[in-house]
Design goal:
Layout: H1 2-26, E1 33-46, E2 52-55, E3 64-65, E4 70-75, H2 77-102, H3 106-138, H4 144-173, H5 177-202, E5 205-207, E6 212-217, E7 224-225, E8 232-247, E9 259-264, E10 271-283, E11 300-307, E12 319-324
Antiparallel strand pairs: 1-8, 1-12, 2-4, 2-7, 3-6, 4-5, 6-8, 8-11, 9-10, 9-12, 10-11
Helix pairs in contact: 2-5, 3-4
């Protein structure tokens, strides 16, 4: 009986040994380089360009957004008033330019002509009075003082007539080209000021820079935000990748564009198609200057492997095993 027990034990031990050896040589093994990382996506923060109180927030985590989509509105009544002010300034400048280009109206030229005729009449009378006073002075009927007063009145009337003639001449010639050009430049300046104000007003609309999913919502309606504050964080789920680290001794076995298989714990038995997108040119850390051959294995380089996420089922943070073949 004892002999049979020993024989049985020997047989069992032999079977186990054969099984271990067989498993070692015949089990399916992964070929290539295997590394572990987590699923990541390209992220972008949606930020306002101006400060103010935020409103119009309707998105929540998990919602989809499109490039150029308006996701929020910053309330700035001062910017709205600024646009109205600059629109009025432009309208005034354009009206003044039209007025200068048109020159004096017909009624204004008629008025200038009438003023000239009136001043001519005044001068003619003053001249006649002076000539009459000269005769009276020669006969001794008036004093020298009276003659001087008559001459002064004639000279004043002549100056007024000359001024009226100049005004009529200017009216007939129209506005000087320099004045028109100066006003035209003022119109251009007003347009530029208005355009700048409209840009500021447009910046109160908060726009998404990329397509993707809202990963986090960081503000609520009614809160005050400053320029550059991240209202939402959006992830581009189509730009999905895994960052792994490869030792320096294995770096020569891989290249950009090389195919890779990606296994996700959440989807057992499934292998996602991957491709090396980027290989870092620098080690993640620098060891001491003198290292042994075995220590050189500790020098690692970051490798980004792009993963096909056309189904949109891979999420940031999922653990992943990457097999580089």
């Amino acid at each position: 009986m004892q002999v049979n027990k020993k024989l049985l034990a020997i047989i069992v031990a032999g079977v186990v040994a054969v099984g271990v050896v067989g498993y070692k040589y015949f089990r399916p093994v992964e070929t290539g380089i295997t590394a572990t990382g987590t699923i990541e996506v390209t992220k972008a923060d949606i930020m306002p360009k101006v400060s103010g109180y935020i409103g119009g927030l309707e998105l929540k985590a998990g919602d989809s957004v499109q490039t150029g989509q308006k996701v929020a509105k910053i309330t700035r009544s001062d910017l709205e008033a600024q646009v109205i002010r600059d629109e009025a300034a432009l309208a005034k400048a354009e009206a003044q330019l039209r007025d200068l280009e048109a020159g004096p109206r017909r009624q204004e030229r008629q008025e200038l002509g009438a003023m000239l005729e009136s001043s001519r009449s005044v001068y003619a009378k003053a001249k006649q009075d002076y000539e009459r006073y000269q005769s009276l002075y020669a006969s001794g009927a008036i004093s020298t003082q009276q003659l001087d007063a008559a001459r002064s009145n004639m000279e004043v009337a002549y100056s007024a007539m000359s001024a009226s003639a100049e005004r009529l001449s200017l009216g007939e010639e129209g506005t000087r080209p320099e004045s028109i050009e100066a006003q035209r430049l003022e119109v251009e300046r007003s347009k530029a000021v208005l355009a700048a104000s409209k840009v500021l007003q447009e910046d109160t609309n908060v726009i998404s820079p990329i397509n993707g999913l809202v990963l986090s919502k960081n503000y609520e309606n009614g809160e005050y935000v400053n320029p550059g504050a991240a209202i939402f964080t959006v992830g581009d789920m189509n730009d999905c990748w895994v960052k792994v680290y490869i030792s320096s001794t294995q770096l020569g076995m891989i290249a950009v564009g090389q195919e890779a298989g990606v296994k996700i714990d959440s989807f057992p038995g499934r292998v996602f198609r991957g491709q090396i997108k980027e290989i870092s040119q620098n080690a993640e850390f620098t060891p001491r200057q003198s290292i042994t051959q075995s220590e050189r294995a500790n020098l690692v380089f970051a490798v980004k492997v792009k993963v096909d996420n056309s189904e949109g089922i891979l999420k940031p943070g999922m653990p992943a095993d990457v097999v580089l073949k």
